[in-house]
Amino acid sequence: MKELSVLSLICSCFYSQPHPNTIYQYGDMEVKQLDKRASGQSFEVILKSPSDLSPESPMLSSPPKRKDTSLEELQKRLEAAEERRKARRHGGPDGGAGTQEAQVLKQLAERREHEREVLHKALEGNSNFSRLAEQRLNYKMELSKEIREAHLAALRERLREKELHAAEVRRNKEQREMSG
C-alpha cells in the first residue's frame, strides 16, 4: 500500500484515469477509491481507532504528569491558607481599619443612600413635571375659554346687528305701504 499526501489525493480527483492503487494510507486514516461515476470519483475515508495505530505513528499528546507532592508540602500549604484567612478576617496583618464584612456593609449602605438620592430626585422631577404640565393645561384652558367668550360675543354682536337691520327693513316696508 502506498501513502499519499492530501494534496495528491485531491489532485487524483481530477484525473480521468483511475490510479492503479485503490487503497491509500495516510497517518491514522485509510482512503479507498470507489467505482468511478459519470459525475466524478468517490472515496471512502476510514479513520483507524487509537488501538489500531502503530507505535511509529504520532501519539495523541497526554497531559503532563504532576509531580507528587509530599504530605509536608500539603500541610504547609494548608497552614499558609489558614493564615491568609485569619489575616483577612481580622483586618489584615498591618492592623487594617476594618474587616471584609464591614467593607461590604459600608458599600451596601452607600448603595442604599445613592438609591434614595436617585429616588428623591426622580420624585422631585416627576412632581416638577406634573406641576408644569398642570400650569400649561390651565393656561390653555383659560386661553380657550377667552377665545370662546370672544367668539360668542362676536356672534351676539352680529345677531344684534341683523336684528337692527331687520327692524329697519320692516319700518321702511311699513312706511312704503302707508305712503303708497
TrEMBL record:
Subunit structure: Interacts with STAT3. Interacts with CLU (secreted form); this interaction may act as an important modulator during neuronal differentiation.
Sequence similarity: Belongs to the stathmin family.
Top-level division of the source organism's lineage: Eukaryota
Stored Gene3D superfamilies: 6.10.280.30
Keywords, in A-Z order: Coiled coil
PROSITE patterns on file: STATHMIN_1, STATHMIN_2, STATHMIN_3
Taxonomic lineage: Eukaryota, Metazoa, Chordata, Craniata, Vertebrata
A GO molecular-function descriptor: tubulin binding
Protein's UniProt keywords contain Chaperone: no
Region of interest (Disordered), ranges: 45-104
GO biological process: microtubule depolymerization; neuron projection development; regulation of microtubule polymerization or depolymerization
Organism: Tupaia chinensis
PANTHER family, A to Z: STATHMIN, STATHMIN-3
Protein name: Stathmin
Biased composition range(s): Low complexity: 49-63
Described function: Exhibits microtubule-destabilizing activity, which is antagonized by STAT3.
Basic and acidic residues biased stretches: 65-85
Cellular-component GO terms for this entry: cytoplasm; neuron projection
